User: Fold these one by one.
Assistant:
Number 1:
Amino acid sequence: EPEVTQTPSHQVTQMGQEVILRCVPISNHLYFYWYRQILGQKVEFLVSFYNNEISEKSEIFDDQFSVERPDGSNFTLKIRSTKLEDSAMYFCASSESPGREREAFFGQGTRLTVV
Amino acid sequence: AQRVTQPEKLLSVFKGAPVELKCNYSYSGSPELFWYVQYSRQRLQLLLRHISRESIKGFTADLNKGETSFHLKKPFAQEEDSAMYYCALNNQGGKLIFGQGTELSVKP
């Protein structure tokens, strides 16, 4: 069964450094998402991406965050200058469409630790 | 405001007992609601959606618009049901709004 794949599974970085989290969505999917979950808190939407542009973003997704699909298969989340509060589990998801009955499939997550 | 509330952080039951995981939502339009499950060390996966009105692994959930609820139920819990359960609302644009999650622990 096709899966969404995320790398790395765990990333430790120093405050102020840039990190890139990578995702390979399911191949025939057109809609891509990033979510994050700070330890002990709920899963929060960050951004959705369709047709090579952001379709929706949350207030969390400020100027330090960016997404791109550089090569038609990978979908990346870049955090330009990490802060301690960026430490969280980051989940990538993809779906065929955002409409009704279109299931979002999630990756296994990348645990980001900012020290 | 769009919001999903799961009032219980932890629900502990014995094997064979009935289970109800509560979910309430706030949404101005016509909601599309889901239950996602996360077993230990595994990814989030869809358990069921209200549109399909299906039963998966013995779980059912009925949308009650009057009470703005979408509670997840199972008449007889099994040990393998132990997991984190997340209620989520789709805002039609694909964005999922999650509740805080309920950890279900089924004791033998």
Note: The CA atoms of residues 62 and 104 of chain B lie 19 Å apart.
Number 2:
Amino acid sequence: DGGITQSPKYLFRKEGQNVTLSCEQNLNHDAMYWYRQDPGQGLRLIYYSQIVNDFQKGDIAEGYSVSREKKESFPLTVTSAQKNPTAFYLCASRLDFLVTEAFFGQGTRLTVV
Amino acid sequence: GENVEQHPSTLSVQEGDSAVIKCTYSDSASNYFPWYKQELGKGPQLIIDIRSNVGEKKDQRIAVTLNKTAKHFSLHITETQPEDSAVYFCAASSTYNQGGKLIFGQGTELSVKP
């Protein structure tokens, strides 16, 4: 089955640690996105990538980093510089950045302990 | 910057009634308007979308209308069922803006009472 897979589903991080969230898609999509969701709020864009080996900052990129070495993979690292990392993180992909449907993964819930 | 306003934030209806959720957007270059349904602890799923060259689109009990002049679009759900209960998000994007990023509204929590 084609789709977009995020792992892990739940992640706990100690203060001062970096953690990496995985996002893999087998839809052959060029564009990939990372969003952050806080309770009662909409989704806010962290980073996006329109093509392999290229990515751009979104609206709330501070404290996060990404890479896009393969078309199917777009991992997100939450660094210790992110002061309030506890949130629900969603990865999405689209065939391209034109008027096409975005498919979302099932999300990773990150909690700082 | 660009933003999308969504109302109401919560909506409670009786089973069988209709539900309407409204969104307004600020970027006049927006040309794609999807609606997503999100169940608790899961990722959003597309339920319907509309492009800027169309004024209305319908898919069974769900319909979306777009008024480009007024920069607003609405989701209409008829004959609501308990399984329609979820959080609904509208979004807008422009091909020419930041990689076609989707800008989301704040969400509407819909509750359908049996």
Note: The mean pLDDT of chain B is 93.
